[in-house]
Specification:
Length: about 180
Amino acid sequence: MSAARLFAALRPPAYARDDLIEKLSGLNISRRQLVPNDDWHVTVAFIGSVHAEAFHRVATAVAETARQVPRQMSLLLAGGGRFDRGGRNIVHVGVDGDVAALTRMAADLDARLGRVGFPGKERTYVPHVTVSYVHDCLSECEIAADVEVLEKYRGPRWVATDLVLYRSQTRSAARYEQLRRYVLP
């Protein structure tokens, strides 16, 4: 494997994604730029570019973090908002439930990755699922109306079962390839 952009994430189960699909179906963003629901995930750590010789160290750090989770994490997709990244609106759905445990998992993984040469970014961890990258196709009012609906959303509860190491392939659209899957307690 040559250098690859890697991240570790949780994947909401099909029933949670289906519930969210139903909620999104009436929104303005559903007319255009939804992220395919097969790609929906809750990022635990963005690792960045990893060369083949460092892959084992990264995979080991992710596996060790998965083994350290003390108990099941009960989560749900809830709330919503948007981030502005370089003039591009990213509409997301938040995560609720055992967010404290999820935040500890993210901090643990960041620390382990830092010890093997992949320091995390200095920013507050905000667990979320990106549902749309909005370009110029929607007005500010349309985006704000969608975010207002998502702010009230509460999906079904689910238990995080796996921490997945993904490769991001960002040619014309982001596509994610599962490289390793680590079962959580």
